[in-house]
Design brief:
The chain has two domains: 198 residues, DHBP synthase (Alpha-Beta Complex); 96 residues, Rossmann fold (3-Layer(aba) Sandwich), CATH 3.40.50. The chain has eleven helices and 13 strands. β7 and β8 form a beta hairpin. The protein is globular. The relative contact order is 0.14.
Length: 324
């Protein structure tokens, strides 16, 4: 038995005994537990310090399990699932009565996806139950995109973290729900569906006091360091000239204000690729947040395609957003 097989066997045993593990996916790392175990789900909420009104995404390993989790599934939902699963698409559907309320925060809707990661899929296929797997970070903080991030957050609280390397996508899945069978985008994510949904495309407002889907709390994905998102880095640097500043720009930029206290610069992409920017976003934020800075200034990216998802994360990560 190789090391991965041994780790998967250990993970299965932990999950079957109401425990939780760190799970790699193509989007971010998750904190995973059996959706039918109230003990496991309570532990997820406790470890993350997650508000109990914030529902969890259910992860499945095959299409046959979909009908166990959801009912009255719109035809267009099935079309999207067949086209994009496994992948970073979460469908918000009417839940089957089998799904406990403690997974959906009392909602009659359930968020479901099939992750596109070989380790996650192999584990899910070996289990008799789906997994709830919100991001493996304290609630509201930067999502983890490698096993080291999870270990840094929870050095003792999780008995096992499956190491699947760096996440391919780097930001969360796109969440699509249905209103009168019309698809609605509830959360921007790493799957760009604007062209796919065309006239039916929409999205939930940025502020939502009672989130109906994961990731809708206003301040989310946030560094501990004060963070501002902006369309003009130089303006913010000039205002905060007395602070030790780290800059996260879209592509490389030269800071013109030579009297500023910009101690460190990061950029998201070498070749103006929004896909590359998404993959690097949380890793760069993690790095800047470890530098004992007074302020992180983040440049908003082109607001097209997956750029809308990146900007949504930057705005939610920020203490302020300044449009100038």
């Amino acid at each position: 038995m190789n090391n991965l097989d041994s780790q998967l066997d250990k993970a299965k045993t932990i999950l079957e005994n109401n425990g939780v593990i760190g799970l790699p996916t193509e989007t971010v790392y998750g904190l995973a537990g059996n959706i039918y175990s109230e003990e496991a789900i309570s532990e997820i909420y406790r470890i993350k310090n997650r508000p109990t009104n914030n529902p969890l995404i259910v992860h499945i390993g095959d299409f046959e399990m979909l009908n166990e989790i959801a009912e009255e599934i719109p035809e267009y939902a099935l079309y999207l699932a067949k086209k994009y699963w496994p992948g970073p698409l979460t469908l918000l559907l009417k839940k089957n009565k089998n799904v406990p309320d403690f997974v959906t925060a009392g909602s009659d809707l359930v968020a479901i996806r099939m992750p596109d990661h070989p380790i996650a899929l192999e584990l899910l296929k070996s289990l008799d139950f789906p997994l709830a797997a919100p991001s493996a970070n304290p609630s509201g903080q930067i999502s983890p995109t490698c096993a080291e991030h999870v270990r840094n957050y929870f050095p003792k609280q999780i008995p096992l973290i499956l190491d699947g390397g760096e996440c391919e996508k780097g930001i969360e899945s796109t969440i699509v729900g249905f209103e009168n069978n019309v698809p609605v985008i509830y959360r921007f994510g790493s799957l760009d569906l604007e062209d796919e949904l065309k006239e039916a495309w929409s999205k939930a407002p940025l502020s939502n006091s009672e989130p109906t889907t994961p990731g809708m709390l206003y301040q989310h994905y946030a560094p501990k360091t004060e963070t501002i998102s902006t369309e003009n880095i130089e303006t913010i640097i000039a205002i905060h000239h007395d602070k030790l500043i780290g800059v996260l720009s879209y592509s490389f930029c030269e800071i013109k204000d030579k009297n500023s206290n910009v101690l460190f610069q990061e950029h998201l992409t070498e070749n103006n690729s929004l896909i590359e920017a998404a993959k690097n976003l949380y890793q760069k934020l993690h790095h800047l947040d470890q530098l004992n800075l007074d302020l992180i200034v983040c440049e908003l990216v082109p607001n097209i395609g997956i750029g809308k998802a990146i900007n949504d994360k930057l705005i939610r990560a920020s203490h302020k957003k300044i449009n100038k």
